[in-house]
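Protein 1 of 2
SEQ + STRUCT:
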Amino acid sequence: INAESWGMSVSSESRASFDAWRPSLFSRAQHILRTVFPAKALEIEAYRETEPVLQTSFWESLSHKESSKEQKEEHARKRRKTDENKSSVDGASPFVDSAANASFVTLIARLKKEIIELLGYLSVLKTWIQLHIPRIEDGGNFGVEVQEEALGELTKEEIRTQYALEDAEKYHIARGKMMTKIAKYPGLADYRHSLRELDEREWVSMRARVLSLRNSYLLLNDHLSKNYALLQAPRGTSDRTATTSVL
């Protein structure tokens, strides 16, 4: 067998494999849209309502405990000698330094998992729509415009989701720098207050991210389901290249 015939054989086999793979991709996209998205929306809503760290009472509890500790620490500092106070790092709030951050690390890990999972679904849906875009012709392009709008929404969500991954890293870097300042200047209350503000902003952001994830599943499912027929066959049944809609 010469190289040319070998190359043609591989090309034919690859084409056959590709043609066999397309329907499985389309079926997976249908399953994501019909089953996975509604289930994920309900799952995240249940998590939002039951996760203790996401409840308002969590931060109120932190603030109250931290305030009590700071009052005790301030009273104790006044009774220490100056040299002892300078050589210790008791000015940093132990509760904020450990308890709040430990809770956030667990929640951030869960959010990362959810974000990576959503990115995978978005990739499948984008590919599904792109493979249904027909060749360019004059007229009858309304369905193609619907496809392009849907792709735009999926791309926007992809970008927003990727930014959410970066936010977690930025929080840890900022917190590490603030902890360094507190260790260096233990008697300076402003740094401790700044750390508390940083943790509170991150807590608010995490609550917003969870809500955003839920809404992403809800709104994308609603938008894509309503336009499913045009997304799959933008110029009518004659252009249909996948299995019949199951939605």
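Protein 2 of 2
SEQ + STRUCT:
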Amino acid sequence: MPSFRMLVILVVFVTGVLAQETLFPLDEALNRDRRSGIRTCQTSIFGSFETPTTTAVNNPGNSPDGWVVSGSIFSVIRAAPSSPFGPPVAADGDQYAILQAAEDSIDGVWLELNETYEADGRYEFTMFVARGAGITQSFVSLEFRDQNNVDIASRSLITALLRSNGFDQHSLVLNVPSGASYIGDTVRVGLTFGGTGISPAVDQLEICSILPTTTSTTTTSSTSSTSSTSSTSSTS
């Protein structure tokens, strides 16, 4: 009969195995072979807001390259301790982006990736989000959109709950149902802003996809962040 110590060791070992099987952080190595398919990630050259280069610190610069902008001015900001728009250090590179007037977002901004939505595919939209000190009246929504610019799944992040002057990684996950109308559309990610005043700061976009091999994925949408996890359902 196993001793009490052996049982404790066995329980700890099994618990560790289960944790390793169920937790999949977004910073895993690229192309990791998972049971549901092959994971591949891409970081758009426009996802870090390094172009055009700006020296603007106290005034927003030009719109970032690659993004389609609707409504208010979507601007690149050079990170600096004296900037009133966001953190003193960017999540990646030297620049990040903000919307100057969140209330004028209209359809927000969006960027198309070099891949399409596939049936039973899983898509992860990850971005670093922060707020400048004293900015508490606006929010940003991370979104997957179809070719008609209609939201497929979204997640809203309000400034009051974001870390002041520091970036944290947040994500939106979309599992594509086999009969979804947007299958075959180019993957489009969007940012919609709301509230009033200066928006949260955004930086370092990454899109990861897990395409099916023999096992289908679930057909719900979920969201997660480095500090907390929540779930939502979306309809197409």
